[in-house]
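Take a record:
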Amino acid sequence: MAENNVLDIQHISISFPGVKALDDVSFSIERGTVHALVGENGAGKSSLIKILAGVYHEDAGNIILNGKPVKFKTPHDAQLEGISVVHQDFKLSEPLTVTENIFLGRLLYKRGLVDWKAMKKKAQALLEELNINIDVDEVVSNLSVAKKQIIEICRAINVNADILVMDEPSATLTVKEQEIMFDIVRKLNRQGMTVIYISHRLEEVFDLAHNVTVLRDGRHVETLPTSQVDRKKLISLMVGRELDNEYPKETVEIGEVLLEVKGLCRKGVLENISFHVRKGEILGIAGLVGSGRTETARAVLGIDKIDNGEITWKSNPVVLKSFKNAIKSGMGLVPEDRKLQGLVQILPVKENITMVSMDQIITRGVVRPSLENKHSRQYVEKLRISTPSLETEAQYLSGGNQQKVVIAKWLMQQSDVIFMDEPTRGVDVGAKVEIYLLMNEMVRQGKAVVMISSELPEILGMSDRIMVMHDGRMVGEFNRKEATQEAIMSLCV
């Protein structure tokens, strides 16, 4: 072990039913650095950090921390040794205050009573140290996503952590919020903290990290300084092949209007939204978080009630009183939060794929397992969904494969217009390209895609037209040739 290494991971392996998550993984992390951990969904990143956090126990191998072997039986053991994790899914208790969350599970006492004064004082000091202004008495449920992320960080470093593991910390943040979070990472690092940073956004890796480790299929591929690798090389290390085009948009003949929306209004949320989407077209909707993009999709699909507006479907005026009506008409939704809204995580892959197309697997009022298996297997193979079996619960798939299951659900339903809200959020670069290719296939078949995305390169790379929203209004529209990142951002803000 080199003297400057804070952590040495030696020959770590761990298996779960049907899959070897980590296979003889070894690499080192230098003290006082930001060390990025990258790889495709299913590469083993989450399994590794859960071992470091004491959630999982390795089958083989050793963890050397500050020169000595350690074994973590529980997350508390890892925290005692100075390792804290900021998880992608917040672990906050939202009805409690900021102070209560920061000290959750480790209250301060004075003469046998909870010392609220001391906890508030320390919570305030932690926030001030990060140059963040948040009321320590505020209830967490009232905070923005970005501020909740900051409370997670404060909670993690409140245990005198030497190593902070951050799992996809920017996934749900706006551009401005991301910059605040990046400043916090840099500040903590300047103070001597080692940060293990996991992200699918490679621009963040090059912006923040000193070194990067690539995992692929549960194996260590390479660890090297970020200064010695470019984006193209890093992607090839992650996916195991050259990726010539990150945005493989195909030119498809665009046909008649499938869906037209005029004057859509929802008080306090949407104002006079009008747009159309044609057969064979990908319509991108750009805008900052809170601009009304998701709310527009929900209103059109009958999920949220509208006050005014007209919806025309295949030249016929329609009134979509519910999402069920929209589905029957031929519309679908790949939602922003696949885990909460797109999947039933405890159900098998096959049931998630077939759940909106029950008429195809039911005969005489009875679900036919043979039909269910036949149809779901067809889409697992077509979309190259990596799953141990059709019976595997959706919760055990990687993020990219979960997203493919959601898409498969609407392909089986043969939806003509599919709204895709943040279709590649939390998805690795290889799986992103596979999702883009699926979008190409949809429009080749004469379907239309309405893509809502916070990633402007994605919007610019895959859209035929781009609609820009701000504060519940449509503020501009560009065709593919005239759209630029600067022009779109100027309207977004």
User: Anything to note?
Assistant: The CA atoms of residues 385 and 401 lie 5 Å apart. The chain has two domains: 5-239, 257-492.
